Protein backbone atom coordinates (compact mmCIF):
# COMPACT_ATOMS: atom_id res chain seq x y z
CA UNK A 1 0.00 0.00 0.00
CA UNK A 2 1.31 3.44 -0.92
CA UNK A 3 0.30 6.75 0.62
CA UNK A 4 -0.36 9.04 -2.31
CA UNK A 5 -2.51 11.91 -1.05
CA UNK A 6 -2.13 14.44 1.74
CA UNK A 7 -4.13 17.60 2.43
CA UNK A 8 -2.79 20.57 4.38
CA UNK A 9 -4.90 23.47 5.60
CA UNK A 10 -3.14 26.81 5.19
CA UNK A 11 -4.14 30.46 5.54
CA UNK A 12 -2.52 31.48 2.22
CA UNK A 13 -2.83 28.81 -0.46
CA UNK A 14 -0.95 30.64 -3.26
CA UNK A 15 2.04 31.45 -1.00
CA UNK A 16 2.34 27.87 0.26
CA UNK A 17 1.94 26.45 -3.26
CA UNK A 18 4.56 28.80 -4.72
CA UNK A 19 7.00 27.85 -1.93
CA UNK A 20 6.56 24.12 -2.54
CA UNK A 21 6.90 24.58 -6.28
CA UNK A 22 9.98 26.81 -6.11
CA UNK A 23 12.05 24.90 -3.56
CA UNK A 24 10.85 21.30 -3.91
CA UNK A 25 9.80 20.95 -7.54
CA UNK A 26 6.15 20.12 -6.98
CA UNK A 27 3.99 20.98 -9.97
CA UNK A 28 0.77 22.96 -9.50
CA UNK A 29 -2.39 21.95 -11.28
CA UNK A 30 -3.47 25.05 -13.22
CA UNK A 31 -6.23 26.82 -11.34
CA UNK A 32 -7.32 30.35 -10.61
CA UNK A 33 -8.71 29.39 -7.21
CA UNK A 34 -7.08 31.00 -4.19
CA UNK A 35 -8.73 28.58 -1.77
CA UNK A 36 -7.46 25.26 -3.18
CA UNK A 37 -4.42 23.94 -4.99
CA UNK A 38 -3.32 20.45 -6.01
CA UNK A 39 0.41 19.80 -6.36
CA UNK A 40 2.10 16.72 -7.82
CA UNK A 41 5.52 15.11 -7.62
CA UNK A 42 7.23 12.59 -9.92
CA UNK A 43 6.32 9.61 -7.69
CA UNK A 44 2.55 9.97 -7.72
CA UNK A 45 2.09 12.06 -4.59
CA UNK A 46 -0.81 14.49 -4.65
CA UNK A 47 -0.48 17.25 -2.05
CA UNK A 48 -3.53 19.44 -1.76
CA UNK A 49 -3.70 22.77 0.01
CA UNK A 50 -7.01 24.14 1.29
CA UNK A 51 -7.58 27.60 2.68
CA UNK A 52 -8.43 27.74 6.37
CA UNK A 53 -8.23 30.46 8.96
CA UNK A 54 -6.40 30.13 12.27
CA UNK A 55 -4.44 27.00 11.37
CA UNK A 56 -2.17 25.70 14.13
CA UNK A 57 -0.12 22.57 13.59
CA UNK A 58 1.37 20.68 16.55
CA UNK A 59 5.02 21.52 17.19
CA UNK A 60 6.29 18.20 15.89
CA UNK A 61 4.17 18.17 12.72
CA UNK A 62 6.13 18.42 9.48
CA UNK A 63 6.37 17.14 5.94
CA UNK A 64 9.67 15.92 4.54
CA UNK A 65 11.55 15.92 1.27
CA UNK A 66 14.27 13.28 0.88
CA UNK A 67 17.24 14.38 -1.20
CA UNK A 68 19.69 12.27 -3.16
CA UNK A 69 22.78 13.73 -1.46
CA UNK A 70 24.03 15.89 1.36
CA UNK A 71 25.22 18.44 -1.20
CA UNK A 72 21.62 18.78 -2.46
CA UNK A 73 20.47 19.42 1.13
CA UNK A 74 23.16 22.12 1.38
CA UNK A 75 22.03 23.69 -1.92
CA UNK A 76 18.41 23.94 -0.78
CA UNK A 77 19.53 25.35 2.58
CA UNK A 78 21.57 28.05 0.84
CA UNK A 79 18.74 28.98 -1.55
CA UNK A 80 16.32 29.36 1.35
CA UNK A 81 18.84 31.37 3.38
CA UNK A 82 19.66 33.62 0.40
CA UNK A 83 15.93 34.24 -0.09
CA UNK A 84 15.56 35.42 3.51
CA UNK A 85 14.15 32.37 5.27
CA UNK A 86 15.16 31.89 8.91
CA UNK A 87 16.91 28.52 8.75
CA UNK A 88 19.56 26.86 10.87
CA UNK A 89 22.33 25.05 8.98
CA UNK A 90 21.99 21.33 8.29
CA UNK A 91 23.12 19.01 11.08
CA UNK A 92 23.82 15.32 11.45
CA UNK A 93 20.88 13.77 13.29
CA UNK A 94 19.04 10.75 11.89
CA UNK A 95 20.33 12.10 8.54
CA UNK A 96 22.00 15.25 7.16
CA UNK A 97 19.00 17.49 7.75
CA UNK A 98 17.44 20.86 8.50
CA UNK A 99 13.94 22.30 8.75
CA UNK A 100 12.21 25.45 7.59
CA UNK A 101 8.84 27.02 8.38
CA UNK A 102 6.84 27.18 5.18
CA UNK A 103 4.35 29.89 4.35
CA UNK A 104 1.21 28.31 5.73
CA UNK A 105 2.53 27.51 9.18
CA UNK A 106 3.86 23.99 8.71
CA UNK A 107 7.45 22.79 8.98
CA UNK A 108 9.36 21.17 6.15
CA UNK A 109 12.29 18.84 6.76
CA UNK A 110 14.95 18.39 4.10
CA UNK A 111 17.19 15.36 4.57
CA UNK A 112 19.65 13.02 2.90
TrEMBL record:
Keywords: Dioxygenase, Oxidoreductase
SUPFAM superfamilies noted in UniProt: Glyoxalase/Bleomycin resistance protein/Dihydroxybiphenyl dioxygenase
Pfam families: Glyoxalase
Transmembrane stretches, start-end: none
Domain VOC: 2-112
One GO MF term: dioxygenase activity
PANTHER family: LYASE, PUTATIVE-RELATED-RELATED, SLL5075 PROTEIN
Protein name: Glyoxalase/bleomycin resistance protein/dioxygenase
The organism of origin for this protein: Ktedonobacter racemifer DSM 44963
